[in-house]
Amino acid sequence: MNDRTIVKSVLLVLGIVAVLFIGGFALTSSPSPSVTESAKPPTTTTTTEPPPEGVFLIAIDNGSFRPSNVLLDIDETWIVKWMNTDPREYVLADKEGLFEVTLAEGDEFEFDYSTLPPGIYRVFATVGFQRIPGTIDTRPEQ
After folding, report:
1. 58 near 65, Cβ under 8 Å?
2. Is 20 in the same domain as 83?
3. I want to staple 78 with a disulfide (CB 3.0 to 4.6 A). Which of 29, 53, 114, 140 is the partner?
4. Portion of the chain with pLDDT greater than 90, in percent
């Protein structure tokens, strides 16, 4: 092999490497729609209407209860209403086995605590393997 053949071979290899390198950038894929959707900030909703008399509202949003720990004055508020504002489906239940419901996005569930003795009631929502805890405290102020 002479020097001219070696130079041509090196230039050919460099050209192929450059084409592959530049082509690699052109062929990179963009994130899938599900990845793009999950990267969006959570939506928030506000309401200008107060809840009906005797009802306390809890939102299930972005993997949490809002609020998660509730102190109810049974003389004024006796119903707790959960609203799923998250696109994921949750199973809402309480530790005592009083209820277990599945809530899709936009679904609501109400429970009347006025018929139960005063106490702390533990609730949770599950989505996949994630378990979201919450409490409803109906004890009178001490």
Report:
1. yes
2. no
3. 114
4. 56
